[in-house]
Design goal:
Radius of gyration: 61 Å
Shape: elongated
Largest sheet: 4 strands, mixed
Oligomer: single chain
Strand content: 15-25%
Number of helices: 17
Length: about 575
């Protein structure tokens, strides 16, 4: 047998049962690992072709794959289909050619195959189904929407305007994640814009959890919401204006008197009413002269003619002969002169801004100056010195210009100088701590940190150091030879050569060896060691020794023993 294999078998036999079990388990794990790697390296990789399919689309795709004998795998409760990676794009192109997947519902593809004899009622129903399906597919394109269903109510058309009703729509959403308000409003406006005469206030959106995400509001509710939004916008505009003006004035004063030594507050009154005005002005004298655009003349002329006397009759009686004799006949000709002049014309549209500032009030307080003066006892104290009237006038003039003061608006400016309470002064008003409370406040954290470090060292670091030290000592002791090994080493150092051993010592030396070691040692003996070994042997041991190695010498020794026995008997 191969020595290496024999050595391995010997080592396995000498192992304990626990080591044999562990070795067997390790071998099984290694073999299983190699088999798994081999199978994994040679298997066909699969890749996702479609995911998130409906049951109808998944069934259609599987049927097409089965008919084409294409291997596939279903995962994700049947909504995900995986095919071999090299065939992914071929499968997708083939399915797209067949119009698969179609998505939820039915779209305008319902009109791809028109049947002869379809009634108008069926056509209207199909149009409604197609519109609902297309809208559902469009809404499902949102990332947070898993599925959508759209239901549209189209009222019956009427020839009477009074009886005309508007359409309405309701949308059911199956969500993956919550939608933002802007996204919900976008869906409502999307559906409203896709249907004629539909407004967002007639659209209702709910989710599968029963929550109303969007609900059409009446005109009164919408007006109230718009009013609230407008009021909030106006308030925010007013606050931003006051904060901006406050920051500008305060930073300017702090650059002069120092940081945290000026306080500014601004109050504004604004008019948010809307007012649009359209003007059309005509001014004939704007150009400084008269310009005739057109002129029309008309004259009047009177011509007198003799009047013929008529024949008296019952219709034309003569009542006064003198009057009849003096009457004459006249003809009047008139003429007019009309002149049109050029005049200027201006059209002006004025829109009032969002907010008109009607009044502005600014109140500013600045800190004074401080000087250190010595009292009668020689102690130095901090003494407040108010600012002079000239300085205050200068500060007020600066604030007036910075705020945009307008006397017509009755703006107000208040500028005062007061001593500011410092942090030291505020602390001085507190009760002075003494004794243990003072120590606790001043050194409490330091004492707590020191106690924490001491506890950490006593209960964590010290046991760890002790454990590491014990392990080190144990390792060093294990590295040193045991007392038995020391005795063996000392005996080995003191042992005598095999040649110098007597019979008892040689016997004890061989008793410490196994039979194989003994045979091996005897075979490697030198000539002198072999002679010493044979010399110290008894006759029986010599006979056994030679019987095992030299048969003829053994026969001679036996003959010698027999002859000695015969001689002893004869004597």
């Amino acid at each position: 047998m191969n020595p290496v294999a024999e050595k391995i078998i010997t080592m396995v036999k000498e192992m304990s049962m626990v080591r044999k079990v562990l070795l067997s388990g390790l071998v099984l794990v290694v073999v299983a690992g190699f088999i798994t790697m081999f199978v994994w390296a040679n298997q066909t990789p699969y890749k996702v072709a479609y995911s998130g399919l409906s049951q109808e689309d998944a069934a259609a795709v599987v049927e097409m794959l089965k008919s084409a004998k294409t291997p596939y795998r279903l995962t994700g409760d049947g909504t995900t289909i995986m095919v071999p990676e090299p065939m992914v794009y071929d499968v997708r192109l083939t399915m797209a050619k067949e119009g698969i997947p179609k998505g939820t519902g039915v779209g305008y593809e319902i009109f791809d195959k028109s049947e002869f004899g379809t009634t108008e009622f069926v056509q209207k129903i199909n149009k409604k189904r197609a519109l609902q399906g297309e809208l559902a597919r469009t809404i499902a394109a949102f990332e947070a929407v898993k599925d959508a269903k759209v239901m549209i109510v189209l009222p019956k058309e009427s020839v009477f305007v009074e009886e005309t009703k508007q359409p309405s729509a309701s949308i059911l959403l199956e969500l993956i994640d919550d939608l933002e308000k802007e996204e919900v409003a976008a869906i409502a406006h999307l559906v409203a814009s896709s249907i004629q005469d539909l407004t967002p206030k007639l659209v209702t959106i709910v989710d599968t959890a029963g929550r109303i995400l969007f609900e059409g509001k009446s005109e009164e509710e919408q007006a109230r919401i718009d009013a609230e939004n407008l009021a909030d916008a106006q308030y925010q505009y007013k606050v931003r204006f006051e904060e901006n003006l406050t920051r500008r004035i305060q930073t300017m004063l702090e650059r002069i008197v120092g940081a945290d030594k000026a306080i500014v507050r601004v109050t504004s009154e604004m008019d948010f009413s809307k007012n649009n005005m359209n003007e059309e002005i005509y001014d004939p004298f704007e150009r400084g002269g008269e310009f005739i655009r057109s002129r029309k003349n008309r004259a009047e002329k009177i011509v007198q003619l003799d009047k013929e006397v008529g024949i008296p009759s019952s219709v034309n009686p003569i009542t006064d002969e003198k009057q009849a004799a003096n009457e004459t006949r006249e003809r009047v000709n008139k003429s007019d002169d009309t002149v049109n002049y050029e005049i200027s014309r201006r059209v002006r549209e004025t829109q009032k801004p969002m907010a008109e500032l009607t009044r502005l009030s600014v109140a500013a307080v600045i800190d004074g100056k401080y000087e250190f003066q010595a009292d009668d006892n020689g102690e130095t104290k901090r003494v407040y010195m108010p600012r002079s009237a000239e300085e205050m006038q200068q500060f007020q003039s600066i604030v007036t210009r910075a705020m945009g003061y307008n006397e017509e608006r009755n703006d107000q400016v208040s500028m005062e100088c007061f001593p500011f309470a410092s942090i030291d002064d505020m602390q001085g008003t507190q009760e002075k701590l003494t004794g243990w409370r003072m120590v606790q406040k001043e050194y409490g954290r330091l004492i707590a940190n020191l106690l924490l470090v001491f506890v950490l060292f006593l209960f964590i670091i010290r046991p760890i150091i002790k454990t590491v030290r014990d392990i080190k000592v144990t390792v060093e002791q294990e590295a040193l030879p045991s007392p038995e090994e020391l005795a063996q080493l000392e005996a080995k150092d003191k042992e005598i050569a095999f040649i110098d051993m007597d019979a008892d010592q040689q016997r004890e030396f061989f008793e410490m060896m196994s039979e194989e070691q003994k045979e091996d040692f005897i075979q490697r003996m030198t000539g002198a060691e072999r002679n010493a070994y044979l010399t110290n042997m008894s006759d029986q041991e010599k006979a056994r020794y030679y019987a095992e190695r030299d048969l003829f010498r053994t026969v001679n020794i036996i003959k010698g023993w027999l002859s000695d026995i015969e001689e002893e008997e004869e004597d």
